[in-house]
Amino acid sequence: MTTALKLNYAFPGLQPVNLHDIDARALECVKLLGWHDLPDRLIEAIEADLIGFHNELTGQFSTRDTAVLQRRASVRYWVRCYLGGLCTYDTALKMLEVPE
């Protein structure tokens, strides 16, 4: 037992992980759309879109903006491709992430 107390568990090369809680509205939308097999990272990449889906489904607003409609179509397409095995996780993530 004394040996275990003398060990140094410092890991200088590791960086802290920034954990982000996914919005409950986004998680509800994932469940409603049947996308429960999506990894958390993909859900985080489309979280704003999922909140928009949720807001429209609950009647809070409706958009006819062409750019928004195209983004939503793109989200649905790449999620279907990933869940259907037509593309890899890396490809789906790359296509769904919004550049900052």
User: What fraction, in percent, of the residue positions are helical?
Assistant: 55-70%
The figure for the number of domains is 1
What is the rounded Rg?
19 Å
Total strand segments: 0
Q: β content, as a range?
A: under 5%
Taking pLDDT < 50 over at least 5 consecutive residues as the criterion, the unreliable ranges are none
Individual helix count: 6
Q: Main β-sheet: number of strands, strand sense, barrel status?
A: none
Q: Separation of termini?
A: 50 Å
Average pLDDT over all residues = 87
Q: What is the H/E string?
A: HHHHHH
SS-based class? mainly alpha
Q: Tell me, what's the shape?
A: globular
Structure, described:
- It is globular, with a radius of gyration of 19 Å.
- Helix 5 packs antiparallel against helix 6.
- The protein has one domain.
- The chain is mostly helical and 100 residues long.
- The chain has 6 helices and no strands.
- The termini are far apart.
- The chain is 58% helix and 0% strand.
- The longest helix has 18 residues.
